[in-house]
Amino acid sequence: MKQNWLILGASSAMARAFARRVAENGADVYLAGRDMDDLACLAADCRVRGAETAEALKFDARKPSGFPAIRDRLAMQDGELNVAVFVGSMPAQSAIDDDPALISGTVGDSFTGPAQFLQGFAPLMEDRGGGTIVGVGSVAGDRGRIGNYVYGAAKAGFATYLSGLRNRLTRAGGHVVTVKPGFVDTAMTWGLPGMFLVASPEDVARDIQRAVQKRRNTIYTPFFWRYIMLIITHSPEAIFKKMSI
Q1: CA–CA separation, 161 vs 181, rounded Å?
Q2: Which of 13, 114, 221, 228 could form a disulfide with 207 if both were Cys (CB 3.0 to 4.6 A apart)?
Q3: How far apart are the first and last CA of the chain?
Q4: What are the beta bridge partners of residue 219?
Q5: DSSP string of the chain?
Q6: Residue 197: pLDDT band by 50, 70, 90 thresholds?
Q7: Residue 187's pLDDT is what?
């Protein structure tokens, strides 16, 4: 069956690596984001790699008025409809402390905007009787930490939303994969203090592709973050609140 992949936040490093992988497998790709010139270059790259169709689409998680046009464009395509969500923003926690108004944008980019888009897209997948949604969250959503608790709260909300959506779409033959990356070498993490065991976007994209193929529910990438977060989430609160992480 023909594969169509809509990639939200396609300019991010992880999204670019994933787009290239699915294009190499012959999928048609629809690259959604704000930087149309950059997305046009990525679309050309995907066509060279094997995608018969690769298009750039305007998408802003904070502007839901633009969502229906993207859904209508995908509804025109034959075959399976799939979505990968790489959208998110992570201002420094210190910046949010200075300006709490930044919270709404962080939550909009990292949770409510993508969730609102997927809520409208889900009926298309149900009508087709299949398809996959990949929702990229973060290990930051597993427990509120002093270094990025607003971003973590947004990603925790997104993970809970994806869990419910997975329950819904399973009944129609669809699937939802929740992805929780650790530290990845991207523009969003560049220069952050305390970075360790940093993964490449290409390695993360490979793990996501395998998770899609195996219909995994939730993955940590790289895999060892599952064990790191197991320790963090099970640390007693009396100890945890004294930790500077």
Answers
A1: 17
A2: 221
A3: 46
A4: 179
A5: --EEEEEETTTSHHHHHHHHHHHHTT-EEEEEES-HHHHHHHHHHHHHHT-S-EEEEE--TT-GGGHHHHHHHHHTS-SEEEEEE-------HHHHHH-TTHHHHHHIIIIIHHHHHHHHHHHHHHHHT--EEEEE--GGGGS--TTSHHHHHHHHHHHHHHHHHHHHHHTTT-EEEEEEE-SB-STTTTT-TT--SPBPHHHHHHHHHHHHHHT-SEEEESTTHHHHHHHHHTS-HHHHTT---
A6: low
A7: 55
Spatial distance between the Cα atoms of 132 and 124, rounded to a whole number of angstroms: 12
How many alpha carbons lie under 13 Å from residue 132 in its C-beta half-sphere?
21
Residue range 49-103, pLDDT digits in tens: 999 999 999 999 999 999 999 999 999 999 999 999 999 999 999 999 999 999 9
Q: Is the pLDDT of residue 196 over 80?
A: no
| 26-44 tens-digit pLDDT | 999 999 999 999 999 999 9
One-letter identity of residue 50: G
Which amino acid belongs to residue 27? Answer: A
The residue ranges of every structural domain in the chain are 3-240
Reported CATH class of domain 3-240? alpha beta
- Report how far residue 207's alpha carbon sits from residue 196's, in angstroms, rounded to the nearest whole number: 19
CB 180 within 8 A of CB 141: yes
What is the reported pLDDT for 154?
98
Global pTM?
0.93
User: Going by DSSP bridges, is the β-strand pair 218-221/28-33 parallel, antiparallel, or unpaired?
Assistant: unpaired
